[in-house]
Amino acid sequence: MDSVLARKSIVLGVTGSIAAFKAVALASELTKQGAVVDVVMTEAATRFVAPLSFQAITHRPVHTDMFALLAEVEIGHVSLGQRADVLVIAPATANVLAELATGLADNLLLTTALATRAPTIIAPAMEPLMYSHPATQASVARLREWGAVVLEPVEGRLASGRVGRGRMVEPAEIVEAIRAVLARRQDYAGKRVVVTAGPNYEPIDPVRFIGNRSSGKMGYAVAEAARDRGAEVTLVSGPSALTPPAGVTVVPVETALEMQRAVEEAVAGADVLLMAAAVADYRAAEQVERKIKREKEGDVTIRLVRNPDILAGLAGRPVFKVGFAAETEDLLANARAKLERKGAQMFVANDVLAPGSGFGTDTNQVTLLDWLGGTTPLPLMSKRAVADAILDRVLELLPIWRCTLSPDPSP
């Protein structure tokens, strides 16, 4: 039995998709882990899966009738909504996404969604063209703005025989999302956190640039985790294809100099700075105003000059500074040297050549080093789990570091 899920009230909404059979497996796993699962089915959902399937697994009545009362004095959608620790809608069709995003409430599931203030997790399932349609994407964006966790559908073979991005995520991933939501803490409430993420693009000419392989996934995961734990978050992001996290102030930049200016402004009054960006070490000494033409120029020599070290430049600022070291050799020695040289309080070191730990992956394996000499190796985990582990360690060290600060000499 899972300690996070035990005795938690999960309202599972099931809508009219062929993926409804996966919801049976989801209900089964949640029940095995000790959760109390109340299933709410739309009429269309009952065409794909019989309510009896869920009732046999959860040992609880399945709710389908908008006007049925759970008890003589209980109104169904109100009682379900108030009781829920988490509302999960899996699968969610394009129609239901649109109804949720516009506040419609013409069935029991939709009214329950409006009547609850519990965290909401949504797992869409539909044909790829339907999911990519601007109307569906607008619905997803609106629901995320309202705080819903939307688990993007994955690539795979669909019931129609087509292959594309439309398959509902597997029940195990939904269970992990439920655990994460239930485990959310507000231990960063009242704190201001600045996170950098992604690469820098240093222009050579109007077409070409010097860049690196950073996707921004680690920094975005840290920003989302800090937000979920109650922090006021500013994300200074280099170019990235990732969707900016809702509820986070995003400052887009391209070059290292732009990132430096944005960070220096953002850290004023901040409690924690986490420099997860892959900041460019060099930039072209001169940027050519017109595109370099191979036919005219032949071989080209580009003179590079050093970019400023953003983290080292903040050594005197009263903010807890966390650096990131992406290394290919001598991991701990190189990271420890950076920690001391840059005046940081903590460094997150990872070997980008290790399996599952390089740029663009969804996982990471890191070691946390601190200015007190501590070394904390972590196993291979999702980047979101790594983000929470980093934030946990920062909270442990923050009060110790504050005690080392010189007292304010002002009266």
List the helices and strands and how they pair.
Blueprint lengths: L8 E6 L5 H13 L3 E6 L9 H8 L17 H8 L2 E7 L1 H9 L5 H8 L4 E5 L3 H5 L1 H12 L3 E2 L3 E4 L5 E5 L3 H12 L9 E6 L4 E2 L5 E2 L6 H12 L3 E6 L11 E4 L3 H11 L5 E4 L6 E3 L9 H4 L6 E3 L13 E8 L3 H12 L3 E6 L11 E2 L2 E4 L4 E3 L3 E2 H22 L7
Parallel strand pairs: 1-2, 1-3, 3-4, 4-5, 8-11, 8-13, 11-12, 13-16, 16-17
Antiparallel strand pairs: 6-7, 9-10, 14-15, 17-19, 18-21, 19-20
Helix pairs in contact: 1-2, 1-8, 3-5, 4-7, 9-13
Helix content: 25-40%
Please describe the biggest sheet, giving its number of strands, its sense, and whether it closes into a barrel. Answer: 8 strands, mixed
The 3D shape can be described as globular
Strand content: 15-25%
Taken together, the total number of domains comes to 2
- According to CATH, the homologous superfamily of the largest domain is CoaB-like
Would you identify the CATH architecture of the largest domain? 3-Layer(aba) Sandwich
Given as residue ranges, the uncertain stretches (5+ residues, pLDDT < 50) are none
DSSP strand count: 21
